[in-house]
């Protein structure tokens, strides 16, 4: 895992500015994620809105073909580059003014994904079902209060139940001024592997909070490590490099022992870098470091 950020960052809505990294820089600064650790971008523009997914570099991401009648969706197959661990990830945006026909296309899409894919699934996004009230139910994710729902909302609830899908968000994700807060942003899974959802402050002027998910789905990561080739070092040049006036360099009369030790370490590291080559261990070979931890996802407006 990255130290505090995520292995996956999904934006629910984006615009042309996102392609230049303007808004995403705000996201990664807010979350403490290094931009360099999110170096694979899959970006698809959809009319005036879009969906954007940043994937950690150790994961392989492949676009998955799904029925395209419901256009505002993006599905990826995620796998570790070194193992067969896999996860189907979906990012969805449903407009609050969605038509019945568009809703039907959404339901058919989720039916298709649930039926055709037999691997673990994680679907997130802004579904804009503002009237559905979700409450936690131990061992079953979240349940919905159905007494005051219309036919469209009931159809969505039935869709999740019939496909044995879990919904996990139970705290409002959107509030504008003094308006009633709503749970618009949902986290849906095929198994109960979401262990924690943290609500973070909204980004810039958005009225949607950022969701940080911790999932008990392990992707194995092998971190490349470099090893010094001590047998190939150019020690003649190294000795010449260290042939300096140490008393002047260390300023013995002015510096403490700790200060001199730091200066000595710096020049030694510099010499090692110049005159002793390294070898990089890749994948599962050599001294590559294996990490297999919880998977984290950031869902941003």
Given as residue ranges, the uncertain stretches (5+ residues, pLDDT < 50) are: 1-5, 14-23, 30-49, 283-292
Fraction in helix: 10-25%
Task: Name the CATH superfamily classification of the largest domain.
Answer: Endonuclease/exonuclease/phosphatase
Q: Structural class of the helices, strands and pairings?
A: alpha+beta
CATH fold naming of the largest domain: Deoxyribonuclease I, Chain A
Total number of distinct structural domains:
2
What is the CATH level 1 assignment of the largest domain? Answer: Alpha Beta
Element-by-element helix/strand order: EHHEEEEEHEEEHEEEEEHHHEE
Strand portion? 25-35%
Oligomer: single chain
The CATH architecture of the largest domain can be named as 4-Layer Sandwich
Count of DSSP E strands? 16
**First-to-last CA distance:** 22 Å
Task: Describe the secondary structure blueprint for this structure.
Blueprint: E1 8-11, H1 16-19, H2 22-31, E2 40-46, E3 49-55, E4 59-63, E5 73-80, E6 86-93, H3 100-116, E7 121-126, E8 133-136, E9 142-145, H4 151-162, E10 166-167, E11 185-189, E12 194-200, E13 210-223, E14 225-228, H5 235-241, H6 246-250, H7 257-275, E15 278-281, E16 289-300
Parallel strand pairs: 1-16, 6-7
Antiparallel strand pairs: 1-3, 2-3, 4-5, 5-6, 7-11, 8-9, 10-11, 12-13, 13-16, 14-15
């Amino acid at each position: 895992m990255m130290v505090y950020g995520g292995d996956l960052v999904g934006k629910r809505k984006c615009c042309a500015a996102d392609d230049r990294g303007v808004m995403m820089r705000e996201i990664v600064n807010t979350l403490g994620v290094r931009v360099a650790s999110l170096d694979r971008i899959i970006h698809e523009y959809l009319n005036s809105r879009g969906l954007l997914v940043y994937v950690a570099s150790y994961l392989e991401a492949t676009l998955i073909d799904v029925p395209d009648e419901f256009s505002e969706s993006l599905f990826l197959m995620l796998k570790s580059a070194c193992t067969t661990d896999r996860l189907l990830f979906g990012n969805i945006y449903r407009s609050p003014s969605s038509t019945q026909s568009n809703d039907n296309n959404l339901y058919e899409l989720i039916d298709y994904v649930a039926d055709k894919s037999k691997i673990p699934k994680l679907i997130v996004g802004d579904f804009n079902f503002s009237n559905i009230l979700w409450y936690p139910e131990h061992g079953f994710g979240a349940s919905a209060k159905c007494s005051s729902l219309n036919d469209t909302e009931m159809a969505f609830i039935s869709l999740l139940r019939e496909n044995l899908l879990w919904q996990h968000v139970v705290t409002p994700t959107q509030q504008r001024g003094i308006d009633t807060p709503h749970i618009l942003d949902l986290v849906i899974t095929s198994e109960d592997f979401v262990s924690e959802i943290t609500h973070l402050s909204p980004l810039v002027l958005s009225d949607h909070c950022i969701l940080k998910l911790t999932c008990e789905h392990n992707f194995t990561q092998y971190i490349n490590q470099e090893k010094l080739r001590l047998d190939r070092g150019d020690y003649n040049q190294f000795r010449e490099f260290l042939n300096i006036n140490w008393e002047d360099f260390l300023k013995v009369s002015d510096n403490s022992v700790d200060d001199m030790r730091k200066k000595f370490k710096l020049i030694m590291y510099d010499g090692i870098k110049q005159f002793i080559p390294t070898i990089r261990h890749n994948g599962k070979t050599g001294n590559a470091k294996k990490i297999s931890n919880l998977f984290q996802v950031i869902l941003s407006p």
